[in-house]
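Session log. Operator J.P. requested a structure for one protein chain; no other inputs attached. Running the standard single-chain path with C-alpha cell output.
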Amino acid sequence: MTAQKKKSKSKKKSKQVRTIDHSTGRVIRIIVGCLFGVLAIFTLAALISYLFTWSKDLSLASDPELFDNSVAAENSGGKIGFLWAQFLVSKLFGLGAFVIPFFLGAVAVLCFRIRKVNILKLSIVTIFGAIIFSVFFSYIFSFTSMDSLFGNGAGGSYGYFANEWLCRMLGKLGAGCVIALAILIWLSLFTPKVAFWFDSLIFNAAHWERKRKEPVVEAESDDPEEPEDDDETLETEEVEGVSEPEEVVVPKAKIPASQSTTADDVELIIEKDDNDFFPDLPEDEKARLFDPRLDLPNYQQPPLSLLDDYRDKWYEVSRDELEKNKSKIVNALANYKIKVESIVAKMGPTVTLYKIHIADGVRIVQVKRLEEDIAMSLAAKGVRVITLTDAIGIEVANEKPSIVALKSILNSPKFKEATMELPMALGITVTNEPFFLDLEKMPHLLIAGATGMGKSVGLNAIIASLIYCKHPSEMKFVLVDPKKVELSLYNKLEKHFLAMLPDGDEAIITDNTKVIHTLNSLCTEMDSRYDLLKMADVRKIKEYNEKFLSRKLNPAKGHMFLPYIVVIIDEFADLLMTSGREIEEPIARLAQKARAVGIHLVIATQRPTTDIITGTIKANFNSRIAFKVNAMVDSKTILDQTGANRLIGRGDMLVSYPGAELTRVQCALIDTDEIKRITKFVSDQQGYPHAFYLPEYVDKDDDESAIGAVDLHKRDKLFEEAAKIVVQYQQGSTSLIQRKLNLGYNRAGRIIDQLEAAGIVGPYGGSKARSVLVTDFDSLDRILESLDHI
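Structure written below.
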C-alpha cells in the first residue's frame, strides 16, 4: 500500500470521526434542550396552580406518608409539583419564583439554537431578578392584609426576612427607594432600552418645554416706505425637533461572510451539485458557513451612552431676535419698493430661515439681487437669499449657534425607520430636521472647505455613523491620512473594521507610495468582484449578497459574501501635489466603476481649487459637501454655484447630491473623547486575527517575474497547497486560489502560470476557466515529487 493511499484512508477515518463526534454532540444538545423545555413547562404549571391550591394541599407538606397514601394533590403538577412549587414560593422567593421557569425555557432555546442566548448574563439576571422581586412583593404586600400569603408572605421566606431587615435599617420610605433602584438596575441589565428610555424621557421633557409654540404674527404694511412695527407680525412655524428614542435601530443591510475558508472546510467540501454544495456537513454547519456574523458572534455595537448630548449647548432663538430681524428685512425690502405680505420663521440650530411672501407682481430676481444689501442691513454672518417653492427664503445666522450632537441624529425616529446600506448621519437642516444620506446611493462623496471649518468633524461623523450601524463583517474602511494625525484615533479598529495591504505596517495609510499601491489594489479587488458578479449573473453587490445568503452561489467555486469597502482620504490635495497622475488615475477608475461592487470613496480637501478639484474629479463625484470657503470662486469650484462663501463656519455646510436641491445643514459634532470611547469599546471586544487584507499589489516596474518564462525552480511557497486546491475542486481559476489562500490577484496569477508550466492546469482560454489536467491526488503527488528533483 502506498503512502498516499494510507494518507487518504487516514483522512477518511479522521473525517468520519469528526462527523460521529459532531452527531453525538448534537444528539446530547437536543436531549438536554428537551429536558429543560419540559422542566420549564412543568415548573410554570406547578407555580400557577400553587397560587390557587396551596391552602388545600398544605396538609400534604407535613404528611410523613406523602408518597405512600392515595390522597391526590390539587396542584396540576401532582405531589411533586406541589412540593417543588412550595419550595420555590414559600421557602425561597415567593412570587419572584416565576422568573425561574423563564430561565429554564431560555436554556432550552439555547440548546435548540432557536436564538442566541448569553447564558452567563441570563443566569445573573435570573438570580438577581428572583431576589429583587422576592423583596419587592414582600414590601408591597406588607401594607395589605395579604402579608401572610403562602405562609411567609408574597415574597417567600427570603423576601420576608430581607424586607424586615431593610425596613429596620432604612425605614419604610428608605427601603422602598432601595427596592425601586434595584428594580431599575435589574431592568437595565435585562434590556438597555430601559436606561435609554429613562434618559430619553428626561431629555424630551426639557426639549419639548423649549419647543412650545410661540405666538403667531404676520408682517404686513400698507406703506412700504413707512412700515408700522405695531401692525407687522412674524409667524413662527413649530418644526418637529430631533427627539431621542430608546436606542439606535440599525438600518437594514446584509451581512458578509468570512474572508477565507479554513483547512477543515476544504477537506470536508465535496462538490456534487449546485443545489447540494456540502453534503457531508450537517444543516446547522451549513447555516454557519453562510452566516458571516458567526465570525464574531458576540460583537456588540457601541451604545449611545458613549456619545455626549450637548444639551447645555442648545439655544433657542429669542422672540426679540426674531422681531428685530423681521423689521430689518421688511425695511431693507421697503427701500426698494418691495412689499412684504407675510414672514414665516423656521428656526434651526445655527441659522433661522425667514420665508418671505412678497406682493404679486414683484419678480423674485429683484429680491435675489439685494442679497448684499440685506446682509448689510442685518449686520449678520451667513446671510443667503434662496428660492423656495412658494416664497423667497432668507437665511440669517442666529446670535447664539447651537451644537448638534451626533447622538440626537442617530436617535431620531426618521433615522430609525430609514432603510439604508451605508447610512451617514450628517446633521440638522435649517428647518430643524435630521439630515442623513445613504453613501451606497450617492455613490461617492467629495468634501471641501477652508481650514478649520469642520471637514475633519464631518469625516468623523460619517465614520462614527457607519460604525454604529454596521457589523464588522458588513463593512471595511480604507483610511488614508497624509497628515498622520487626523485619523490615527481609528488605529484600534484594525482587527474589526479596517482593510489594508497584506504587507502593510499600519492600517492607517500615511505613506504616499502605500496610498498608490492601495488604490491600485482596490482596482484589482474591483475587477475580481466584477468577475464574481458575472459568474453569479447579477449586476449589483446587493443582488449578489442576497443570492449568496439564499445559498444560490457555491463557495466551493470561490463565492463569498462581499463586505462594503469605504475609502476615506483626508487630504486629497497633499496626495495630488506629491503623486499627481498616479493618484488621480486609480481614483477616477474606482469612481467610475466601483459603485456596483460595493466600493465607495469619500475624499476631502482644504484646497478647493481647480488644480485639485479637476474636471475628472467633478465628473465622477456628483455628491459634494462644501464647508465655508473664503472666495466665491472656490464655492463655484465645489458646487458649481455660489453660497459656500456665505456660510458661518463651525460645521455650517451646503450639501449637493443627485435628485435634490442644495441643502444647508449644521454638521453633527463628535469630539475626540467620544471617538476614543467608541474605538475602545470596539477594540476591547474579540476581533479578527488581522485586518481585512486587500489583494496583494506588485509594482510592474519591480516585478521581475512578470518578464520571461516561468522558472519552476523558483516556485511559490504556496504552490503545492494551490495545486491541491485546484485538483480538489477541478477548477483552474485564479480567483479560486486568490480566495482560498487569501492572496493578491497578481500572486495568484503567477501561481496559475507555474501550475500550467508544471502540467497541472491547461493554457489560458480567455473567458473560460482553465482545464485541470490532473484528476486525482496520486497523480498530483507524482508530479510534485518529480518537481523536487529538477
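Operator note: The longest strand covers residues 340-347.
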